[in-house]
Amino acid sequence: MRKAAFCPGHITGFFEICRSDKLLSTGSRGAGFCLTLGATSAVNTADSERQSIQVSINGRESVASVTKHSLRYLAEQERLRISVSTTLDLPVSQGFGMSAAGSLSASLALADILGKSRQKAFEAAHIAEVERGGGLGDISALHRGGVTVRKKAGLPPIGKVLRIDGEPEVVLCVVGRRMLTKSVLTNPAKARAINATGSRKVDELLKKPSIYRFMELSAQFTQESGLASRRILDVMSAASKLGMASMSMLGSSVFAVGDTTGLSRVLSDFGDTYVCRVDIRGPRLL
Hints:
This protein has helices at about 65-75, 100-115, 120-130, 140-145, 180-185, 190-205, 210-225, 230-240, 260-265, and strands at about 1-20, 25-45, 50-55, 60, 80-90, 145-150, 160-165, 170-175, 245, 255-260, 270-275, 285. By secondary structure, it is α+β, with helices and mostly antiparallel strands. The chain has a single domain (about 1-285), classed as Ribosomal Protein S5, domain 2. Strands 1, 2, 3, 4, 5, 6, 7 and 12 form an eight-stranded mixed beta sheet that branches. A four-stranded antiparallel beta sheet has the order 9-10-8-11. A hairpin with a 7-residue loop joins strand 6 (about 145-150) and strand 7. The protein is globular and about 60 Å long. The two termini are about 15 Å apart. The mean pLDDT is about 95.
């Protein structure tokens, strides 16, 4: 059988790491945007003597450990040959949620083939992200869609995710080398710095939720967490005359809202740029 699905990308502006003994309760509090650029996965299955999973990304065979972990969770003991072809709209390891989008799009397609629920696909993708170190909050945010505030960590309905009104255009700019999420989340000093400021930012946004306040707090978090390079701070400064910008967590990249044409022109001097909108439709079968 063959099914295909699309999953939006996701950007986090600030967050707090929240660990738990239970995987579905593990995650992060934070806030971010779901994006109209993301991942499209076509999944094919066939009966087999043993279970096997093969994943190609943008036409090349890939280890894709997060996606494979998610699909094994869904397939359980089914003896199937599962092949996945995923197309990513944005670069990996740059804070655009491509690991989550690839995993969830494939999981939604396979869940449909197997007659399993949409929620089961989200569970599979969330658990895979947590166990493989791909991220903590992307799947929870994608569960809600739009501009989100992750008020309580974990996958909904355990986690609590609120939506802020708005569908602005977003300009993305890659300004440096890839940043491996796992290397940051497992670094004790960086984790302490993230949590020291991230929790306060969530609480402040909940008092007055708006896209403007989200962008303002994201820029503050970028400065206070110590995660940004000098180049990222320079890009944010260059964008400030045309809108508001901040670092994509976790990547060597910047996202900005405001004068889309002007921001695209200015940010293109620093790296590859992409223009999209906030996605409110959410992950979906095609």
